[in-house]
Amino acid sequence: MRKILHLDLDAFFCAVEELHDPSLRGKPFAVGGSPQGRGVVASCSYAARKFGVHSAMPMSRAVRICPDLQIVRHSYRNYVEYSCKARAIMQSYSELVQAISIDEAFIEVTDLPKDAVEYARDMQARIRDELGLPSSLGVATNKLVAKIATNVGKASSQTNTYPNAIQVVPPGEEAAFLAPLPTEALWGVGPKTAEKLAELRLHTIGDIAAYPLAELERRFGEHGRALHRRAQGIDNSPIHLSHETKSVSQEVTYREDTNNPRQLRETLKKQSLSVSQRLKKLELFAKSVQLKLRWSDFTTITRQLTLQEATDQADLIEHAANKLLDQNWKNRRLIRLIGVGVHGLEPPSRQMSLWDWDPRESAKQDQLEQALKLLNQRFGPDVVRHASELKADRHAQ
Q1: What is the pTM of this model?
Q2: Are 280 and 252 in contact (CB under 8 A)?
Q3: DSSP percent split of the chain into helix, strand, coil, nearest 5
């Protein structure tokens, strides 16, 4: 039985800024660009979130809905410094630490003797005491559930400041834990997929798990099988110590130049499948697809298409490659070489560069918070609980 922790440094940029300027504590402020330009909110304090400010929001809108908002320019070097210090604390427990962004990581503690939650509590306390930073953790038997557990723990926090949550999902309870959550909380479900699932009246992860696998495969192909597996809390992906791969590609040079559409599209199909299989092996999703064409005179062009949602699915890669072929192959010109590649690789959970914020992440968190509120209203306030409460319950029994 694996023991996986997911650690998220709460409102990391804001927490670091407060260390250097304690007067910011308790005040509505945001780290980001100027409201006069096209600046966006990189991170905001919990006091600012009460007014509706959130990450990826245009700063001009943030100051409109929160007139007292203080704007703080980013301190890149400080963020990197504290991120490295936090990473060092994680690595003091285990060599198996997978960083997925500057403020987020997976840690595997399977080979350590104590319960995983004890390491979570100790790690959280050390990061707080040694660095002065708040953090939230998810504890589970795999990366998928641990990541979602962190989000649930943070969303269910009843405080108006850093949540400092620890959410535990005991072995065997993965599917039950995921079941009431909205479909958007699941890896591989972006806005478009969520819309298609809603058309089937699938609104929660439990709905996906209960839906016939054959029907999901018929409607979504291989992606449907993956969704069905994840909805049951199944994830065997290992801890990756690094993600050095920047791109994955396949290309072929024909023995004879060709302008046969059927031959070209069949090649793209095979190449897309090969690229997809490589992405799955690496546990990576791609943000863009690139088509490479070399004409009979050896002139070579590359054209790229950014996807609406990162993917590892062969059919979506193939569709983008065919679209690029249609746009750039004119007059049935003879082709000597054709290739498909993918770029912008990231883990399925999230891999953001320091200044690459995705508003969909904030939307998912908002939806998760609303779902938890509905659960509390329907089943009572104890339907989702923190790990700290479990220990008290054991002592009381």
Answers
A1: 0.67
A2: no
A3: 45, 20, 35
Catalytic residues: 104
Task: Give the pair of three-digit tokens for residue 178.
Answer: 């995921």
Four-CA torsion 69, 74, 78, 80, nearest 10 degrees: 120
**Rounded distance, CA 244 to CA 108, Å?**
20
Q: How many C-beta neighbours within 10 Å does residue 31 have? A: 23
Residue with tokens 């599209």: 265
- Mean pLDDT lowest for which of 192-206, 230-244, 312-326? 230-244
CA 171 to chain centre: 23
3-class DSSP assignment, residue 344: coil
Question: CB–CB of 325/302 below 8 Å?
Answer: no
Averaged pLDDT, 269-284: 88
pLDDT, position 382:
53
| Residue spans of alpha helices (H) in 232-260 | none
Q: Percent of the chain having pLDDT more than 70?
A: 86
Average pLDDT score over residue span 187-198? 90
Alpha-carbon distances, residue 191 vs 93, 148, 348, 361, 379 (angstroms): 37, 17, 15, 11, 28
Tokens of 212: 């016939």
What does the alpha-carbon distance between residue 139 and residue 3 come to, in Å, rounded to a whole number? 7
